[in-house]
Write a structure and sequence with these properties.
Blueprint (H helix, E strand, L loop, with lengths): L1 H5 L1 H23 L18 H4 L7 H32 L5 H13 L2 H15 L5 H25 L3 H9 L4 H30 L2 H6 L7 H11 L3 H31 L1
Helix pairs in contact: 2-12, 4-7, 4-9, 4-11, 5-7, 7-9, 8-9
């Protein structure tokens, strides 16, 4: 009991993490299943067929490719714009700054059904046909707020004395930004970019409002497939995405630990 009292927080943390990871472990396990019917809900036998033929389900790889393209472009654009807005809000005082901060939170607080239908109304009134372009615009819009909030928090935590020290060493504004400010803010920018990509890749509701029948993203494909049957290849894609995210976080943590040891 004494050991449990000393390590109660660690035990609770491990239990919570285990509870959170259970669905991911189920996805990984059933990516090696060979179901008898159309639905991959019951374990039948071990098989590597889905891994050797990931595009075996018609239309899945096309939907996955569209989601990856939209996610990459939306995350890059939202990260660049969001970083600039975060620096403007975090470093400068201007008229309308408080109102801008309020407006940034509106896309995060607005229900996705409301946002998706509003964007659809806007695109129809402007005469913009639904498709990959409207999906991309919608994703950039709702990812932007998350990037701004993430990068702004990093900018607010910077010690201004570091930039003052660079100026004392005769560094101009550009050199100070590139060699001092940007490396310090880079973790926040990377976190905002990864968050934007995950939100874009995972979105269904807003995408469904603004997509055309020919522009089917991966979440839309999964939803449609669930009505007819769930191919094992969906679990394969989920496993690859999950392991890729773990690898990115692990590499970033290893780099951070190595830098800390060098310093």
């Amino acid at each position: 009991m004494a050991w449990l009292r000393r390590h109660v927080l660690s035990v609770v943390g491990l239990l919570v993490m285990g509870y959170i990871l259970v669905p991911n472990l189920v996805v990984i396990l059933f990516s090696f299943n060979a179901p008898n019917g159309r639905y991959n809900y019951e374990w039948t036998r071990f098989s590597l067929d889905a891994w050797t033929n990931p595009c075996g389900s018609p239309g899945m790889c096309e939907a996955l490719g569209l989601s990856l393209r939209v996610g990459l472009i939306a995350s890059v654009v939202a990260t660049v714009l969001g970083t600039m807005v975060a620096f403007a809000l975090g470093r400068h005082r201007f008229r309308g700054r408080a109102a801008t901060n309020l407006l940034i939170f509106l896309p995060m607080a607005t229900p996705e059904v409301v946002m998706g239908s509003s964007l659809l109304t806007l695109f129809i009134s402007l005469g913009i046909p639904s498709g990959s372009t409207t999906i991309l615009i919608a994703h950039i819009m709702f990812c932007l707020s998350f990037v701004i909030v993430t990068v702004k928090a990093r900018v607010a935590s910077l010690d201004p004395r570091l930039e003052q020290a660079a100026a004392d060493l005769y560094a101009n504004e550009v050199q100070t930004f590139l060699r001092v400010t940007l490396p310090l803010v880079a973790p926040g920018i990377a976190a905002g970019g990864l968050l934007a990509f995950s939100l874009s890749f995972d979105d269904y509701i807003i995408t469904n409002f603004n997509a055309s029948p020919s522009s089917v993203t991966f979440p839309m494909f999964v939803w449609g497939a669930a009505q007819r049957g769930t191919p094992v290849q969906i679990n394969v894609v989920g496993t690859v995405m999950f392991l890729s995210a773990v690898a990115v976080v692990g590499i970033a943590q290893a780099i951070s630990t190595r830098r800390a040891r060098v310093v």
